[in-house]
Structures are given as C-alpha cells and as structure tokens.
Write a structure and sequence with these properties.
The structure is a homodimer of 259-residue chains. Chain A is of the alpha/beta class. Helices cover 37% and strands 23% of the residues of chain A. Chain A folds into 2 domains: 60 residues, Arc Repressor Mutant, subunit A (Orthogonal Bundle), CATH 1.10.10.10; 183 residues, Rossmann fold (3-Layer(aba) Sandwich). In chain A, strand 10 and strand 11 form a beta hairpin. The interface between A and B is medium-sized, with 34 and 28 residues. The first copy, chain A, binds a DNA duplex (30 and 30 nucleotides) through helix 3.
Chain lengths: 259, 259
DNA sequence: ATTGTTTATGCACGTTCTTACCGATTCATG
DNA sequence: CATGAATCGGTAAGAACGTGCATAAACAAT
C-alpha cells in the first residue's frame, strides 16, 4: 500500500476504511501504512476526539450514527413525518419516481396516500419493502452491491440499472444543502450514484431536515436550479430559505405543528 | 466462524442476536465466537450491568422493551425459527449464497449467527434488509420489477442480474416438495427465476415446512438430486423423509424442542 | 543562512485491558 | 439431597495502551 502519506491523508484513508467495513485494527493499519502502531493509535485517538469514530481496545469502530440504518430512522421520526407529508404533495397519480436512499425518503414513502398509483424505483431495500405496503405502487428494485452505511445499492451495477429509467421525478436524499455549494455528500460512490439519478430525472425533489442546511460536504451531487424542489422544515431560518430560492429552486415549507 | 472480533463488536453481535431471537446461550456464543465461556459470561455480565439484557442461568434474555419483532412474526415464527436454525448449519464462513424469496428464507437470514461472514445475494428486499443487520455480511441486491405476490424481483431484469452470480449455495423458497415431482411452484415467472437460480449454484438448500410436503404445483423448479439438501421439520413423517432420501438428496431434520 | 518553533514519528517504560485457566461456590433437576 | 453444570472471583500471560522523551523534518522569522 502507499508507504509515505501525510498524516491527514492517512486519517482520511482510515475513515474510508471505517465507512467501508465498519471497523479497523491498529495492527493492520500500522502494517498497511508502514508506520508504528503508536502513530496509528495517535490517529485513532484524534479521530475519536473529533467524533469521527469510536475508539475501542484493538482498533476503532465506525460510529453508530453513521452506520446502522435502523438507528438513524428512529431518531427524529416525528420531524421527518411532517417533512414527508409536505413532500408527498409533489407526487401525482401515474408518475414514475425514483427514490434515493435516506431515512427521510423512507418516511416519504411511508407517508404516501393509500390510493396513489405510482411506479416507484429505488436502490434501497428498506424503501422497497415500505413501498410494497401500498397496493397501487409498482415497485422496481435497483440491484447491486449494497453499501452498509448508505443501506442501498450503489456502484457500477446500480448505475447500469439506472440507465433503464427516465423518471418524472427523482427524490434525492440530502446530505448537505447550501445555496452556493449546492447539494453535497460525504461518500464518494453514493454521490456518484445520486448525481446520475438526478441527471436522468425530469425534476428533482429534496426533502431536507434543518440540520443539513448550509452543510457543505466534500463531493458535489448537483447545483441548485429551477429543476429542483426543496422541502424544508417549518423551523428553517427564513434567511436561508430566501437564499435557496434565489437559485431558482422551488421552496416548499412544511407546516408547523403544535406538539 | 467469526474468528477474531473486538470485544465490543462481540457484544454488539450478542445484542443483535438478543433482538432477533430474544435469548442467547453462553455455550452457543462461546462456540460461535470461538472464545471461552468465561469470556462470554463476562460479556453478558457487563451487558446486564449496563441494562442491555437480563442475565439468567445458562445465558441471557432480551429485555421486553428491546424486542418489538417477536410480536410481528407471530406464532408460526417458532416453527420457522427452529427450521431456520437447522438450515444455517449448512452455511460456512466465506461462502457466497443466493437467498430466494420466502418467509422461511427470511427466518433463515434472521437466524444467521452474528459472526458469520458471507456474501449474500437476494432478490427479496425484506431479506436484504434483514441481512444488513449482520455486520459481516456483504449484501447484493438483485434488481428488477418486484412481484407483489412474491415480494421479490423476478422477470427479465432479475434473471440478467443472476447471470453475474455463481453462488456456492442457493437457498430456495419451497412451494411444493414431492419425491417424484420434485420441487414445484405456482407462479410461472417465479418458477422460471428459481429454476435459473438453482441451476447456477453448486448446491441447493431447501427449508420446507411440513405443510408443503407432498404438494405438487403446476410448474417444475427442479427435480431432486444429490446436489440438494432438504431441511425438514421435526414432525415431518418418516415415510416422506425416507422417500425424499431415495432421490439422493441430503435430509436434515430440525431438532424437536420443548417449549 | 541561521535560529527557533511546530509537527510528525518512533522508542522505552510502566499501566491497563482482555482472556483463559483454576478452584470454590451456587444453581437446576432428578 | 446428590450430582453435574453453570457461575463467580482470583490469577497470570500477553497484547494493547498512554506518556514522556528524543529525533527528524517542515516552516517562519530574523
């Protein structure tokens, strides 16, 4: 493997491996990077202090937050349901929709009105399962290797499967949303997939919880345009909303709820 | 099996199994993780101290709150669970397995020991979701249009996806199992898909609840042969079992349980 | 060019953690 | 109550750990 990396590069590489396999061993890393275990331990300690991993005896584990999907889904379910309710208003009978991975998108599918008939394609098995609950939705699964952290198929095979689709709407899972940087994501392969999905659809819908506003991640999915509809929570700051509106995107605010 | 897990990972795996089956036995865990029972006992003691499980003589039980699944799958879950437990003994570390649609197969995936590392391909989203609960399983989704009755992708696209696989084992969902007629099914497209899946694998495993024995359906999936392992329930009539055995297939009986 | 500072790394040391084994004790069951 | 299995506490070996220190490289300012 690469022998002399800058410490920052090495830490990025460790993060990549954490994302991929969920765990790293100090000994393995030391051998792979040809540095002493002390150096690796220092890296892991720093990363743990920065909240990038969980340090355990023998190595480090990926954080539960960015790992098992089941945890994320439960966390802010109430808020997501409200957001989802606003997003479903964009869906019309007979549409063909691609639904990207993401807990918010799962909430949207669960919130679909029972009578709506759609053709729904998705790369996330959990969303496919949810969609099958609806009698009038035709479900199409995008195949491929499933990335454990995304919880959905991404990569070459999944991108090939996308080629068969020309959806009326692409519902994208958001990672970061910023007026200038556009839509950005953390995981390279995931971003590459989202980018293709967004490009093939006639329109793009992004439902975005407030914590993702003004977040900028390393990889760009798409810039904002009039092809996009952004669904924001009720408590999203007006300043940010108007900033986003200036890009030409349609802004949809979720109704505030008492409770 | 799971060769060397970090202690923290092992405890996470134990928690996963607790969520799944509600109980764990110290001896089983020790064998599964290849550590001494002392180590497992220490894990269980720690977890109990942290309020993650209830320590009992012989193992541990899930806390009532942490087991929402038990209700869902209902009573037949017990039978399928036992059948599944027998079936998983055919799976070895490092195998590539194709898992066909079916509720019994879903139970098998849920019953997989936590440490087992597999590559698992499936055309049923619900199985993919269940497989993602296991940290060391690489999941591959077979894409395509999802048949609402089967709950899985079948048809042209799914069959194309199968072309990329040469699994060591194909776990088929059974519809009808008869010594002379072989394995048969009701839905034409589903049978066509199963047929291809079975043909591509080095070996075939069928876990079959007793109600499917001696049933003959209109379409033939495969005839019985020495390439096949049939897992039967404990209460399956001996006459039928010996009849099946004469076809050359390997018969695996689930252990009867008390309570 | 020189000097001082910061940063990254490796090494040595004592400490802590994990685990398997052993003996004493407790538990389930006939 | 007798018996064997399961459990608990202690112990020891080995691995992993953190700290302090020294070295070397990179950088800034003089």
């Amino acid at each position: 493997m690469a022998s002399d990396l800058l410490s920052r590069e090495r830490q990025d590489a460790i993060r990549a491996q954490l994302r991929q396999s969920g765990r790293v061993l100090a000994g393995d890393l030391a051998r792979a990077f040809k540095v002493s275990e002390d150096t690796i331990r220092r890296d892991l300690r720093e990363m743990a202090a920065a909240g990038l991993c969980e340090r355990v005896y023998g190595g480090a584990l990926a954080l539960p937050a960015e790992q098992p999907f089941s945890v994320r889904t439960g966390i802010s379910r109430g808020r997501k349901q409200v957001l989802a309710a606003a997003a479903v208003s964009c869906l019309k009978d007979g549409m063909t929709v691609f639904v990207d991975a993401g807990s918010t998108n799962l909430a949207i599918v669960q919130a679909l009105p029972p009578g709506l008939s759609l053709t729904l394609a998705t790369n996330m098995p959990a969303i496919a399962v949810a969609a099958l609950e609806h009698a009038r939705i035709e479900v199409i699964a995008i195949g491929g290797r499933i990335d454990r952290h995304v919880g959905a198929a991404i990569g070459a095979q999944a991108e090939r499967d996308l080629d068969m689709l020309r959806p009326d709407l692409c519902i994208l899972g958001a990672c970061g949303l910023d007026a200038r940087a556009g839509l950005t994501g953390l995981v390279y392969d995931d971003v590459a997939f989202k980018k293709i999905a967004a490009a093939r659809a006639a329109a793009v819908l992004v439902a975005c919880t407030s914590d993702k506003l003004e977040a900028v991640h390393p990889f760009v999915i798409a810039s904002l345009s009039d092809r996009m509809t952004l669904t924001l929570e009720a408590d999203a700051p007006d300043a940010i909303a108007t900033g986003l509106k200036e890009t030409g995107a349609t802004i949809l605010r979720a109704e505030p709820v008492a409770g």
